[in-house]
């Protein structure tokens, strides 16, 4: 069987008109004799609305009920797509994750797909059916509904491509592919023809919402080529693939940015073993994701300053945890909202000296102050004032000649 997995994001199924367009795209693959597995997200905005409702019910809403609630948006979108295909004369039906089933492991709100039972879908495909499957959701071994993290339909599609050995896995979205930076933020952003899993993973983890980071890990582990393209216009998109398939002479492949970060600085922390662990242990226990961490060298060997970043939505919880933490001593604590992390990403920087300098100099030329720096083999991130994000994207895009 020549199987293709087609995933439609929330923006692609956001209105009735768009859903009709999606049905037309599916029809084109049918005409080419593919066996088609469709994965759909919820209509855009729906998941956010459901999450808002849960917060109005309780600020400590049960994880298991959260999953039942927020996964419901996908059911609606799938039935509408299936309904349209039936209207057009095709054999199609919606499949909810428990009907297949799609099994997940891990905690509620943040599970991962680890097994998909193939029998029912395979028979249905053989009968000429087009299964329209809910992304984002699964069931755990206790038969409770689970969800796999925001943007998780991308991972659903990639896992279907893996289990069904699909010939192609296509992610349809509202932009024409992966761009050098968010095209909705910078008009000069350019579509990338091919990008490696490693670079895509960094771009996604560092703020490029276009693909869910976990889904890229799944694609890389299973060596699944992923095509990202637009459901609005018929144009070639971007191929996410292994590094050896790509010819690229650019030092930097892309730039990502985040928008809702906050910075926490503990001034005058005792400089002795175990202090950092005492600070971060209760944060991790409360599932607060700590991102950039910097510790100053201690001028007198007794005290030091420690800075880290978190998501702004975790700020009040973090404030409370730090205040209540009896295991740490510090002179004062500073909190800063409205910071943003801008990162340049590219495997080319491994073999090119001077990239860090060029980045810092470019930012300095626009008088953008760097608050925190972190690096890995293929990325450099800086924390700056949020109000300077667009300026930083523009100058870095130019400095590394990404518009060319
Ligand atoms: P979907 O609803 O299809 O899942 P998302 O909203 O999750 O779509 O992702 C698409 C959005 O990702 C685009 O509208 C774009 O603004 C944003 N985006 C951020 N960074 C990039 C990038 N480097 N390339 C393309 N899109 C990006
Ligand atoms: N509907 C879910 C979300 O908004 C999953 C997805 O869109 O991929 O996060
Ligand atoms: Mg998405």
Lateral strand order in the biggest sheet: 3-6-2-1-9-11-12-10
Which residue ranges are poorly predicted, with pLDDT under 50 across at least 5 consecutive positions?
Answer: none
The CATH top-level class label of the largest domain: Alpha Beta
* CATH architect. name of the largest domain: 3-Layer(aba) Sandwich
Which bin fits the share of residues in helices?
25-40%
Report the portion of residues in β strands: 25-35%
Q: Total number of helical segments?
A: 12
Estimated structural class: alpha/beta
Distance between the termini: 41 Å
CATH topology type of the largest domain: Carbamate kinase
Question: Tell me about the biggest sheet?
Answer: 8 strands, mixed
Domain unit count: 2
Shape: globular
Oligomer: single chain
The CATH fourth-level homologous superfamily of the largest domain: Acetylglutamate kinase-like
List the bound ligands. Answer: adenosine-5'-diphosphate, aspartic acid, magnesium ion
Mean pLDDT reading: 95
Q: If you compute it from the alpha carbons, what radius of gyration comes out, rounded to the nearest whole angstrom?
A: 23 Å
The number of distinct β-strands equals 19
